[in-house]
Each structure stands twice: as C-alpha cells, then as structure tokens.
Amino acid sequence: MKLYSPCSPWRLLIPRQFSNLFKKGRHCDSALFHSHPQGSTTSLPEDMEACLYVHWPFCKKICTFCNFNKYASNNVDHYRMKKCLVAETKTLLQLSGVKKITSVYFGGGTPSLAEPLIISSVLETISRFSYLPTDVEITLEANPTSAETGRLRHFLSAGINRLSLGIQAFNQKDLLLLGRDNTVKDSLQALQEAKSIFPGKVSIDLLFGRPHQSLEGWSKELLQTIDVCDDHVSLYQLTLERGTPLFRDVKLGKLSLPSSDVVAEMYQMAVETLLRNGFHRYEISNLAKPGAESKHNMAYWNGTQYIGVGPGAHSRFIPLGNGLQTRQARVQTLEPNNWMKEVEIRGHATRKEVPQTKFEVLEEVIMSSLRTADGLSNKKWHSLSPFSKHLSLSDIFKESEDVQQLVESGVLILNEKGIKASHRGLSVVDSIITTLLVHLEKTVRILREDDQIDWKTP
C-alpha cells in the first residue's frame, strides 16, 4: 500500500504548501471580498467555475523530510510578493474566464508567515474579477509555533475561515527528527487557540511511518488526537524524498523506517480509531466529521478546474479569455525571484502550458476521484468522456476480467450509479486505479482504430 505524502501533487504544487512591512491592524473586513458583479451565478457550466490555490514558498527552516517548493528565508520582500501575487491572480482569472471561485487555499511553504494584508489583498482581487460567495471556504496552512498562533485572529480578519495545522506528530523526539520548529506543547496551545477562532474549521496533519516509530507509540498519539483535534484529520505516510537530510540518514543506516506491513497497520489503526470516534473517511488520506470535509480538496478530486497562483503552482483550466476551448495543464515558474521578475514583466509567470486531450483529463479524474469514498459517478463520466454518450462506466469496464476480479473480491463497486472503491478497497486504491487505467487505455486504442472516439479536445 502506498499513500501520498504531504508533498503530494494532489496538494496542487507539483504541485500535500515576515517582517512588519505593513502597519498592524490594516486588515480588511471579509465582507468586502464578496461581490456579485455579473448577475446570478447560481447555476453555471463547469468551465465557468474553479477553485484557486495560492502558494507562499517561504519557510523559517526546511523540514528534514520535505523536498517541496520551499525556500528558507528571513529576508522576504513582502511588498513585492504581495504585488506579484495580486497581479498573477488578476491575470489568470481573466485568462480563465471563470465567473465564480468555489474555494481558496493558501498553501506553502508556510503562508501563516505572510502578512495578513497579503491574504486580504489576494482575496479582494479575486472578488473584483469573479464571484466569491459569502460562504466560500478559505483555508490557510499554518505551523503550530507560538509566533504564528498569536497571529491567527489577524488572519480571521483578513478573510480566512478555515485552518490547516501542520501538527505532524505528538511526539517531541520525532518533531526534532523531522526538523520541526514547534514543540508538542506549542501544538496543543495552537490547537486550543485555533478551535476558539475557527470553531469546527480546524484540520490537522499527522505523519506516520516515521523513523523508529512503533505501533504502540502511534496508538497513543491517535488517542491524543481524538482528545484534542477538531473535526478534520489528514493522514500522510512519510516517504523518503531524494536530496533531503532524512533520505540521506536512512540510506547511510543512521535511521530506519518501519516495514511496509507495519506502516499499513499504522494506517488501518488510524482509520479505525477515527471511525470509532465519529469521523468518516471521505478520501484515502482525509477523515472528517459530517459537514467538515474540505470543499477545496474535494474540488480537486472531482475534476473541477483549478487555478494555481504563485511560484511553482499548477493549474488545470480552459483559457476562455484567450478564446481557446481546450483544457490546459499549466505550471508557474518555480524559483521565487525569477517568478516575481516574470510577473512584473508579463503579469504572470506561466512557465509551461500543455493542452490536454479528453483522455488525459479523464485519466486524471479517474486517478483522483477513485481516492474518494464517493468515487466517480456516471454523470461526471459522461460530462468528460470522449466515448459515445451511451457508453456508461459499466459498459466500459464490465468486460475486463481483471476489473471483475476486483468487484468479486469486494474492493471495487461498479453499478449503474458509477464506480468506487469499497471501504476495504480504499486501502489498496493504487492497485485498483492501475487496473482501471490499463483497461481504459486498451479500450481507447480499440475505439480509436474504429473511429468511435472523439479524444482530441476536452
């Protein structure tokens, strides 16, 4: 079983996310963000909506396990970053032609190190160039240090209404090993403060499969999690990333990781513990109490368009503003200084843009939606499928012996509603997705030869 690390592409930065340059108290009332300049948007086509991700690439220090697009710096030009984030947000919104933003996520890096004015300025820009509903989910990633905890109310005033805390561990020795700059005491204090400011809207990240971690120790951390957490928990398996200090120490034999069987047991233990305490697993790495699911993450997994702003951010949208009708995969320039220079010249720093075929879009949606408890519906399938409209998911997959074996073994559910992994199947979803994609590729090849498939444009 392989789960996804906090540096996973599914956190939208491939593509898993300051000084007092501004006067204190200069935070805008969130009511100012929500505009409705272009009439009713209660029912819009899918290409008229998107979620938006903003990447803040700076950290105080780099964790020993992380190879994400992060830069340790105490000399960030905050004013310049604000201007560039605002400019790129404006440009990409106009390029996309979307009329409504369904959620906003500030990731990093450590965006809770940014001045709240940067957050509010980006949100104001979004509201000027699209519709931002009053109840829209706006999430900020934060580290549970005492310095950042003291700024949470300012972020609330800036427009944030949901917090994702990078707890990672309730074990002091492991926090040091991971290179974290917070203590367990800091984490507990941050959680208490966050829950009072964002009640019912605080998520925590937990990392398992850590060096020398035991099942007994993990069990104790899970019980502590139940005692102190709010309504949402994200579980991430530690993966060794080449070039990181942790990778080096493991390869040199200084540290050892738990076996794959122990890691799998840790995951199951976490899921079962959370299920017994009122959570449900709505995605393989995310569990929440009813109503506390992350709307932003669900948008990714369901194939919604997304706009990525900031160094290294990724996007998937149709650039209607350029008169195009083909969905593109887009990547922004990685390094912050180069990114800012390009934004200042062109209004954006898109380094790469690649048109996606219908089949490529469909592959991505299958890979992401099968991670969720709801899976892929026939309705969504028909909205994306290059196949004839009368071909359902069942029609495509029922002839595959390998797929039928998955159904008969109880890990896959395939019926008139759609396709999804069972509760047991979510734990082995990688192998399920591989089987589905192999069969889908064979089907595409056959139908293309028979000229029964419109696969070039989404």
UniProtKB/TrEMBL annotation:
Key word Lyase present: no
Recorded coiled-coil stretches: none
PROSITE patterns: RADICAL_SAM
Keywords: Chaperone, Heme, Iron, Iron-sulfur, Metal-binding, S-adenosyl-L-methionine
SUPFAM superfamilies attached to this UniProt entry: Radical SAM enzymes
Residue ranges constituting the Radical SAM core domain according to the UniProt record: 44-280
Entry-linked Pfam families: HemN_C, Radical_SAM
Record keyword Iron present: yes
Function per UniProt: May be a heme chaperone, appears to bind heme. Homologous bacterial proteins do not have oxygen-independent coproporphyrinogen-III oxidase activity. Binds 1 [4Fe-4S] cluster. The cluster is coordinated with 3 cysteines and an exchangeable S-adenosyl-L-methionine.
NCBIfam families, per database record: hemN_rel
Family statement drawn from the similarity comment of this UniProt entry: Belongs to the anaerobic coproporphyrinogen-III oxidase family. HemW subfamily.
PANTHER family listed in its UniProt record: COPROPORPHYRINIGEN III OXIDASE, RADICAL S-ADENOSYL METHIONINE DOMAIN-CONTAINING PROTEIN 1, MITOCHONDRIAL
Protein name: Radical S-adenosyl methionine domain-containing protein 1, mitochondrial
